[in-house]
Structures are given as C-alpha cells and as structure tokens.
Amino acid sequence: MTTKHRCRKCGAPPVINMPQHRLALCAEHFPQWIVEQTERFIRKYHMFTHEDRLLAAVSGGKDSLSLWDILWQLGYTVDGLYISLGIDDGTGYSAESQAKADQFAAQRNLKLIVVDVPALYGESIPQMTQRSQRSKGKPCSVCGLVKRRIMDQIARDNGYDVLVTGHNLDDEAATLLANTLIWDADRILRQQPVLEAHHPALRRKAKPLFRFYEREMAAYALLRKIDYIYDECPYAEGTRSIFFKQLLNRLETVQPGAKLKFYLSFLQARESGLFNITAEGITDENMSIGAGGKPLYTCPSCGQPTIVPGLCAFCRLVG
Ligand code: Q46
Ligand code: ZN
Ligand code: ZN
After folding, report:
1. What is this structure's pTM?
2. Where are the domains positioned within the chain?
3. Which H helix or E strand runs over 81?
C-alpha cells in the first residue's frame, strides 16, 4: 500500500484500500465499516428485520462465519446451520470445517444445528455422486441440490423466517457472468440479493454480504480473528465458478470497480424492468409462481416445490 493512502476516518495507516469506493481504512475502522454497511444493505434491500428469526448457513469458511459474526454483533436473532457432506478424500475437509463452525458457535454461545448427510441418508455426497445421473461424475450439482434441500427443510421445520448465506460479490458476479454468457434466463431471473419465498414450503433467502469483495471478507475475518478453514473443498478446484472469478479479477486489475459495477448495473436493469417476468402456465390454484415466472409444483413425497410435476429431483436422488 502506498503512503498516500490514509484511513478516511482517523488518518492512521490503512490495512485496506478499496479503489472502487475510493476508500482506505485502518484496522479499527475497517471492521466497523463492514458491519455498518451490512446493516445498511439489509435495510436498503429489505432483507429482514430484528423481529425475524434467521438461520445462517455456515460452512466453516470465512464468508459464512463472518456473516454470522456480523449479524450477531448487530443484535439479530440468528442461529447457524452446518451441513456435514461427508467429504474427506484424505483431506479431512468435512471434519475440519465442522470443527471451525462448532468452535465459532461455542465461543459466542450461539446455537448451531448440525445435519450429517451420511448419517441421515446413508451416503456421503461423493457416494451419491457416483450413482447419480445428474452429476456427470462431478459432485457439485448433487451437493448443491442436497444443501439447498436441507437448508429449506430445516428453516421450515424449525420456524425460521429467513435463510441467510454468505455469498460475496465475487461469488455473485461470477455466477452472473457464467449465466449471462449463455443467456440462461431462468437462472438470471432467480439471481437476487433477496429471494422471496415462492412456495409455502420455502423461506425467504438473503445474501447480506453480496456487495463486499472476497478480499474484503478475508480481511474482515483476519482482523476479527475468526478461525476459519482456509482450504477450499477438494472438489472446488477447476470448477466453472473459480474460472469466472479469475476472469473477473483480471478485469478488475485493469478496471477497478468493474465487478461491482457489473453486478449493480444488473440489479438496476432488473429494477427498471429489463427482466420483466410474466406468469405463464399457471393452471391450478395449488401451483405457485417461481422467481423466474415459471410454475412451481409440489412434490407428492416431500411437499417441497419442484419445477416439473411429480417427484422432485431430491426425492429422485435419495430414493
Ligand atoms: S462443497 Fe459441494 Fe462446494 Fe465441494 S462439492 Fe462442490 S458444491 S465445491 S461450495
Ligand atoms: Zn481509522
Ligand atoms: Zn420431493
């Protein structure tokens, strides 16, 4: 960091410079700024209020534990949900990430709900992947399906109002870029900082960190001394998401603020009606409309929404 930067609040040497905001802050004022900004975004995007019961999905990584820490500091009623995926592959990934989540909750006297996938369904995510047709040998699609289902179910069965996740701007911009390059309208329409519950079995979903860069969340976790798992899931390597993050980082180096502008312009375009949706195919009063304007059916086995009539993808997977 060059000496021309000073903390905007106190003039001390900064720990971080954020060119997209023309803002540098010191070790004391940066974590405060993150907390204040998060509260501002929660209100601006109508994510939730202090009356809501929140469930934070935590993976043991920096983003989700930082999110839990921020919401806890802001005085929200927020419990954690850790999903043990049974991913070990010689790395001990699941065991270590759970230990970080457990420790975080114990230090702050917070409630952590743990769901153990192999114990509940008799198979780990890698095992489900081996016999699933949707996976093409890669576990992320099966893993995403199982995690989404468990989150929805735990939130619904335990009376939570809102499910919160630690997606940051790098995550959101990479997803948007991937979907935009192939104009995947369904996915683009579903991508929002707040997703309303479109079916009685769902809860609202919110991403309070969606405007922070990944490097900002790493700095926050470090300054708050949050002990998180540094290693990524062993299956993260070589994923599309990491590739698009790298591309956007290259763009960001020549054009500071490009990532933020890309995502915020998308939200603005949505607000101005570029992606207006119409509800098509609603033929039955028991059907709901999904975020993309498509009808949602109810799975006859588990009661969760599904985009095609009959058993949902999760019930087909776990049998
Ligand atoms: S945990 Fe699961 Fe991720 Fe691992 S298997 Fe893929 S989706 S990379 S966030
Ligand atoms: Zn300062
Ligand atoms: Zn089902």
Report:
1. 0.92
2. 27-278
3. strand 77-84
